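hey so i finally got around to running the thing on that chain from the lab meeting. sorry it took forever, my laptop kept dying and i had to restart like 3 times. anyway pasting the input first so we r on the same page abt which one it is
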Amino acid sequence: MKMFLLFSHKLTSEQIKDAKENLGVREFIYLPKDLQDKFSNVPPEIDDIKEYSKIFIEFLEKNVSKEDYVLIQGDFGVVFWVVEYCRENNIKAVYATTKRVVKEKVIDGKVVKISEFKHVRFRYYFRGKND
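ok and heres what got predicted. didnt touch it at all, straight out
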C-alpha cells in the first residue's frame, strides 16, 4: 500500500510512523519535481483552477490504485478538485491534522511566542464505499 503525496512539505517522522502503523502504508510517493513545483506554486492569477488541477489528476490516474492513499494539502481550489476526483473514483484521500503548542521565551528582554505544530493523525476527507 502506497501514500501519494500532494503536499508542499516533506513528511515528518511522526507522520511517517502514523501512516505506517495506522494506515498500513509501506511506500511514500512524492510528485515528480515538475509537478511538485506546480503544486507548490499555484498561480493566483488563473481563473480555471479545475483545468490547472488536471495535471495532478492525470498523475493519479496513471499511478494510484484503490488500496492506496492520497495525502492532499495545498491550494484550496486544487485540493477541492483532486479530492473530488478521489471521491468519484473511491480513492482514499486524507489530510494531516495538527495540534498547536505555543511556547513563550524571553529573547533580548522581549517575550516571543513560538508556535510548534505537532502531528496528531490523518483524517479522511470522506468515507468511501469500502471504509
